[in-house]
Design brief:
Elements lengths: L1 H14 L6 E4 L14 H14 L4 H21 L4 H20 L9 E3 L6 E7 L11 E4 L3 E4 L8 E2 L4 E7 L3 H6 L8 E12 L2 E7 L6 E4 L2 E4 L2 E2 L2 H10 L2 H9 L9 E4 L8 E6 L10 H8 L2 H6 E7 L6 H18 L6 E6 L1 H8 L7 H7 L10 H11 L7 E7 L7 H4 L1 H9 L4 H13 L24 H6 L10 E7 L20 H4 L6 E6 L8 H13 L2
Parallel strand pairs: 3-9, 14-15, 14-16, 16-17, 17-18, 18-19
Antiparallel strand pairs: 1-5, 2-3, 4-7, 6-12, 7-8, 8-9, 10-11, 13-15
Helix pairs in contact: 1-15, 2-3, 2-4, 3-4, 10-11, 10-13, 13-16
């Protein structure tokens, strides 16, 4: 038992202590003035006055901010290139949301009346980002008052333009999830950009989607739409802390069965190609944050792609996780029929799960494991159904391309050595899998150096090179007509590409396991196993997505 505690401690140590993202809020108290036209002096005075009285007279402060935004908007109508006017407009509008939030003023259920220099303002809002009437339920946080940090947030991606970038958050979105099963999760974090338009004494704020619109008509001209692509992602990571479940979902997968789901990060758009990212062992969708952040900064990729993530308890044997993934993909097809063909990006175990989406097994794996056809194999109905889902599959006709990153297609020796065997023993199989395992063992056949277990394999076992499933899958070609690419990490220690020592490896997965014949491209990057976060690997993903049609 002592050695198991030691290994468990090592697993915790591998998870690291660094936070994926940190968020600190600041309250702008001074308007950063810029040289501009004389008319802007009135806007700057209004902003300065509003900042002084925001805490004591919030409605009056909101009125002053709207006065300033309206003055700046008129100046932009005259000169759309006036950067000082645009900055004053954006700053004043963002502070409207700061004041509403600080003073807890409900603003979007019905028009809000606030005093202004030339009479009362009537403030209202609208959005077409979702058809759901959730605008009054959202909390809006101006992105410019958020300072970011953390191991996954090392580059802030923003776009200069008109509008106030906001983080729209919705806590306890269970009812929303019932209507939209692919929403982010029980809490939602989404980047929007507020645009205030003035019609007499009416101010109508629209909440625009910067992942959908690159520019917008405003004050008689078209302007780039301002955006902050990083702040919503960082706030979600900081508040939700996905790291806390990563080890738990490995060691106790049955307890977290309901966390297996496919979720999108943005409003569904039938004109955009879905990119579905699949994480690896002891991980979560958070691991894709650096890649997602970089991809969203690219205008062409924003225009052409939408990003989804498959999350699952990584203690399951990966053929089972793949079976669950297929059902999730079926659900997308039912919910969004006719969507464009998917690009899969899989890291580590997520790469071999993705590989099964572009492979046809027929009965080949079943025959290798049991020596009989499914009809001839003596199994209970429950065991037959689960094993059929995991072992008999066809390639997904809705997948158009796959990118494998640090994927152990042929397994990893770390999973079969003494350390891997002890690590495997820490994973507790769900009761249903124990029953299926007992059934399967009674009719299984073993050969040579096959990994022989007295229970159903878990995720660690299915990464062993001598696992029968691993060996069987690697005797099958990937489906012709679906292009695939490999990105492979190398720690820079050199080594051989075959099994002779020293072996080229990312520290967990050797080159001989990640390499696939027939790949459209293969790139080796100087990286440890987290190759999907390597700048060269991210640049390669961008290149592949740009060429995909």
């Amino acid at each position: 038992m002592g050695i198991r505690i030691l290994i468990a401690s090592a697993v915790l140590a591998l998870a690291g202590c660094a936070q994926y993202a940190t968020v600190t809020e600041k309250r702008p108290r001074i308007f950063p003035q810029m040289p501009g036209s004389g008319v802007l002096a009135l806007a700057e005075d209004a902003i300065t006055k509003a900042l002084r009285q925001g805490d004591t007279k919030p409605l009056a402060a909101i009125g002053e901010f709207l006065d300033a935004a309206e003055i700046a908007a008129r100046q932009l109508a005259r000169n759309p290139r006036d950067s000082a006017a645009r900055r004053a407009y954006n700053f004043a509008l963002a502070r409207v949301f700061t004041t509403l939030r600080d003073a807890k003023i409900p603003a979007w259920r019905e028009p809000l009346r606030v005093p202004g220099a030339k009479g009362e303002w009537l403030l209202s809002g609208r959005t077409d980002i979702t058809r759901e009437p959730i605008l009054p339920l959202l909390e809006f946080i101006p992105a410019d008052q958020i300072e970011l940090g953390g191991s996954y947030v090392n580059q802030r991606e923003v776009k200069d333009g008109i509008g106030a970038p906001l983080i729209a958050t919705l806590r306890d979105a269970k009812e929303f999830l019932k209507r939209d099963p692919f929403a982010q999760g029980k809490n939602i974090y989404y980047g929007v950009t507020a645009i205030a338009r003035f019609e007499g004494r009416r101010c109508v704020v629209s909440f625009e989607d910067p992942l959908k619109k690159e520019d917008i008509a405003f004050s008689a001209h078209r302007h780039p739409l301002a955006a902050d692509y990083t702040a919503p992602l960082a706030l979600m990571l900081a508040r939700e802390n996905p790291k806390k479940l990563e080890i738990a979902r490995l060691l106790r997968p049955g307890k977290y069965a309901e966390t297996a789901r496919l979720a999108r990060t943005q409003a569904y758009d039938p004109a955009k190609t879905p990119v579905v990212c699949v994480h690896g062992l002891m991980d979560s969708p958070a691991t894709w944050a650096p890649l997602l952040n970089a991809l969203r900064a690219d205008p062409e990729i924003r225009r052409r792609y939408q990003f989804w993530f498959y999350s699952y308890p990584s203690g399951y044997p990966y053929p089972l996780s793949a079976a669950i993934f297929r059902k999730q993909l079926d659900a997308i097809a039912a919910h969004h029929p006719g969507h464009k063909k998917i690009v899969l990006i899989g890291h580590s175990m997520g790469g071999i799960i993705s590989r099964l989406m572009v492979t046809d097994s027929g009965n080949q794996i079943w025959m290798k494991l049991f020596g009989k056809t499914p009809a001839q194999t003596a199994l209970s109905l429950q065991s037959r159904a689960l094993l059929s889902d995991a072992l008999i599959f066809q390639h997904r006709k809705d997948v158009g391309r796959a990118i494998f990153i640090a994927a152990p297609h042929r397994g990893s020796d770390l999973a079969s050595n003494w350390l891997g065997r002890i690590g495997s023993s820490l994973v507790k199989a769900p009761t249903t899998l124990l029953s299926v395992g007992n059934d399967a063992l009674k009719v299984s056949t073993f050969r040579g150096d096959d990994l022989i277990l007295k229970r159903i394999p878990n995720s660690v076992d299915t990464l062993a090179p001598n696992n029968r499933f691993v060996k069987a899958v690697n005797e099958m070609p990937l489906t012709p007509g679906i292009p695939y690419h490999s990105i492979i990490g190398d720690r820079g220690k050199g080594g051989n590409k075959d099994r002779t020592k020293p072996i080229s490896s990312d520290g967990f997965v050797p080159y001989w396991s990640s390499h696939l014949e027939g790949a459209k491209s293969e790139l080796i990057v100087p990286s440890n196993h987290s190759a999907h976060q390597n700048p060269q690997a991210i640049a390669e993903v961008k290149r592949i997505l740009r060429l995909h049609r």
